[in-house]
Amino acid sequence: MLDAVIPLLNANARVPVCGLISQYNATELPAGPDRLNWMMGQILSKKIKVQGFIIFDTFGHLYPEFASEMAGWIAAGKIKYREEIIDGLENAPSAFIGLLRGKNFGKRVIRVGHNGKATT
């Protein structure tokens, strides 16, 4: 992706960085050529601004409104989502590792027993 996108960026482009959960537990660099020097050269010569962003830092105050509207859209069938339920707290570690490795599709939930009732 980097090789395909960076050359297409205009001078003074702005690139947001968000959602790196798949890399949280990386212990080594990914396989393949090291592109850091090339990428830094592109950032320098094109004057590209790369900035991380955390959604709640900027838009956190809008979350209550979003949650209310989204709940209505889900109830009306306008928004559909996938949810994977994994039973048992004992399966949580492998489920989380699978999440970090991209083995899920959609929301992954661990259901644990509580006083005879299942809760999430």
UniProtKB/TrEMBL annotation:
InterPro entries: GroES-like_sf, MDR_fam, NAD(P)-bd_dom_sf. One of its GO terms (molecular function) is oxidoreductase activity, acting on the CH-CH group of donors, NAD or NADP as acceptor. Coiled coil: none annotated. PANTHER family: PROSTAGLANDIN REDUCTASE, PROSTAGLANDIN REDUCTASE 1. This is NADP-dependent oxidoreductase. It comes from Pseudorhodobacter antarcticus. The lineage of its organism: Bacteria, Pseudomonadati, Pseudomonadota, Alphaproteobacteria, Rhodobacterales.
